[in-house]
Amino acid sequence: MLTARGHPIAYEVKSTTEVKDVYIKDCALQYMVINHYVHLDDMVLIYIDGDYLESLGKPLNELTEENCDIHKLFKMQSILEEVKAMQPMVEANIERLLPMTWETEEPKVAMGEQCTKPYECEFKLYCNRCAKMEKPSFFKRLFGKK
After folding, report:
1. Are residues 113 and 92 in the same domain?
2. In angstroms, rounded to a whole number, what is the distance separating the alpha carbons of residues 39 and 8?
């Protein structure tokens, strides 16, 4: 977060060449949290200018201060109106999901698409290990041993 002429602005930087809906949703939650403490005048998404990157003819990992202009490499886009419009949805999701954080038992949810989309879940390895432990082995089923 930076202050421009006394006005707080939050910046979210992404290593992508396009604005995706999931980034705006992430920023909507960030906006709610930050705005609870500091009134934000803007929420800005910073991302790579694909046209400029293509014009350089080099992959991103080969760029240096000598072979690119950092000010041309990134685009900045205000998404303030979008995140403000999402505030009722964010509040509703928090109200719906907050009670889950008070549970003492792990949720009984099978692994599925939610484990990888929109992001890889940090608990995927743990859940996968637990899922393997719960499955009876072939021999146990064949011979009826427990």
Report:
1. no
2. 7
Residues 48 and 118 in one domain: no
Which residues lie across from 88 on neighbouring strands? Answer: none
Q: For residue 24, what are its two tokens?
A: 């705006």
Reading the block at residue 20, the tokens are 């995706």
For residue 66 the two structure tokens come to 């000598």
Q: Where are the alpha helices (DSSP H) in the chain?
A: 21-37, 50-56, 70-73, 80-85, 87-97, 124-134, 138-143
Residue 79: is it exposed, middle or buried by C-beta count within 10 angstroms (0-12/13-18/19+)? buried
Q: Are 69 and 134 members of one domain?
A: no
* Residue 9 one-letter amino acid: I
> What is the pLDDT at residue 142?
55
Q: Are residues 127 and 72 in the same domain?
A: no
Which regions in the chain score pLDDT beneath 50? 135, 139
Q: At what angle do helices 21-37 and 87-97 cross, to 10 degrees?
A: 80
Structural domain of residue 124, as residue ranges? 108-146
**What would the two tokens of residue 78 be?**
């205000």
Beta bridge partner(s), residue 75: 47
Whether 22 and 68 share a structural domain = yes
**What pLDDT is stored for residue 131 in this prediction?**
63
